[in-house]
Input
Amino acid sequence: MTQRSVRSVLVVLFDDVQSLDVTGPVEVFAGASAAAQLGGGSTEGAYHIRTASLHGAPVRTSSGLTLVPDAALADEPAPHTLLVPGGQGTRAPDPLLIDWLRENAPRAERLVSVCTGALLLAAAGLLDGRRATTHWVVSDHLARTYPAVDVDPDPIFVRDGNVATSAGVTSGIDLALALVEEDLGRDIALTVARHLVVFLRRPGNQAQFSAQLAAQTAQREPLREVQQWITEHPGDDLSVESLAERARLSPRHFARAFQSETGTTPGRYVDRVRLEHARRLLEDSTDGIEEISRTCGYGTPEAMRRAFVKALGTPPMEYRRRFHAPARPARP
Output
């Protein structure tokens, strides 16, 4: 295996790291190496994965697992990809770890953080002037503490030059799949996604939440019922007047109460539900664009196209081409 055929991946370990932030991306890179070697019969494009802690000592994850690193960070050469996971250990990190990142992370060809790993990169000044994301719970904290960072709390991952940051936990898998697709092509990334039983791949600008999770659950029963109705009937008349009638409130009172109790307007909530429903149909079904636009309440394909371009930066047909889940193979 020659050096040019390998992309080295170095994963930083520390006490109270989130175990899935480590193992999720590692499984993706390891699976991609296996797929590349099996598919081509060579090691071209394989990843060489190493883990390292500050002093080379084992670390205990936030869930109680013990991870044994391959080496101390000081003993590792500059990698192609440096991956910094998150976890409770990012809240009060060892200053020596921040110093190491500040001095050594810029030598990596690609710098990646998962979840609250962005806090470590920000503390080392590596996100200054860059757009970044992190777990929604700490996005405000990141923005307040490091005002030089352009924090976007919505996407599941963000690319800014050679720096990539991802949102909470499993979004690290999405980002790793995106990097594999960039490095080795869609076929290998798709093979890994199938093996891990995940979609290839959620787009980076997909919101961290579903509409139901992003909005609070209304306190009053009539408003909760309206929320559920919207979710189950995206193609129906979901105007404020129609929803207010269902809640037995005046349109003005309904709009104010809905926003007060859910944190979003009825119109925005409806827009998100319809977009999610259309996205799932494009990913999972073979329905035509016109049929999906009617089913999801857009009325016309053009209206759905405008909604997709505005929210996701891509039209429905391109979204389906990139993210449609393959049909399951028939059982023998």
